Amino acid sequence: xxxxxxxxxxxxxxxxxxxxxxxxxxxxxxxxxxxxxxxxxxxxxxxxxxxxxxxxxxxxxxxxxxxxxxxxxxxxxxxxxxxxxxxxxxxxxxxxxxxxxxxxxxxxxxxxxxxxxxxxxxxxxxxxxxxxxxxxxxxxxxxxxxxxxxxxxxxxxxxxxxxxxxxxxxxxxxxxxxxxxxxxxxxxxxxxxxxxxxxxxxxxxxxxxxxxxxxxxxxxxxxxxxxxxxxxxxxxxxxxxxxxxxxxxxxxxxxxxxxxxxx
Length: 263
Description:
- This protein is α+β, with helices and mostly antiparallel strands.
- It has a single domain (2-258), classed as PPM-type phosphatase domain (Phosphatase 2c, domain 1, 4-Layer Sandwich), CATH 3.60.40.10.
- 31% of the residues lie in helices and 31% in strands.
- The chain has 7 helices and 13 strands.
- The chain has helices at 49-66, 68-71, 77-103, 150-153, 189-192, 197-204, 212-228, and strands at residues 2-10, 20-29, 32-41, 111-117, 120-126, 130-134, 138-140, 146-148, 157-159, 172-177, 183-187, 235-243, 255-258.
- The strands form 3 sheets. The chain has a 6-stranded antiparallel β-sheet with strand order 10-5-4-3-2-13, with helices on one face. Strands 1-12-11-6-7 form a 5-stranded antiparallel β-sheet. A two-stranded antiparallel sheet has the order 8-9.
- The chain is globular, with a radius of gyration of 18 Å.
- The two termini are 32 Å apart.
């Protein structure tokens, strides 16, 4: 299996800083292509959310280059992978929490991680970023970790946990088959608040997503659409398209990292 990917991030029309951070890495191990994608939404109600989201990206970048190759030979790959991610996420949580305490601020971020390896997908999820699977239709793979609190503070939803912001974190893990011809969409809540799932499918139908430039343009169009509809948050997304090994469009050994810079 080989892959195309595209990404788009925008601070939007209201916020001064883009607190979202993204990571996409591709590499070949044991003759198999692997893709790691991470999307983080710095918690906008807290100070310096962009620092927290960037810390997660940096940690997973190091993990993919250092620890992941060692896992590819393990017989119990899925269990070992999730154990490795659990240790990593808890360590990031501790570091961000300690940073906030040292500087007298409350700081935090969501994090949603996807690994594509040997025709399977593996997910770690904290917060309310989403992953959609787009094939003949569209299906959400993750569940938002939010609690309705309209009567309490006027907001529609409140995050149940965030890295660095909660007393403790309990990542949720998912896995499944990464079938050929599937588009996986990873996005922050700002990307999908003002658009329906059916519209997302129409923009990103797999039979139209055969070039990375097309995928990137469609993500940009979605971003423009939600901004026109009044979205006020930062807006970020990653699209991954699974291909056969024979596809002439597939690429490998590519890295993209977006940390806490303004767009």
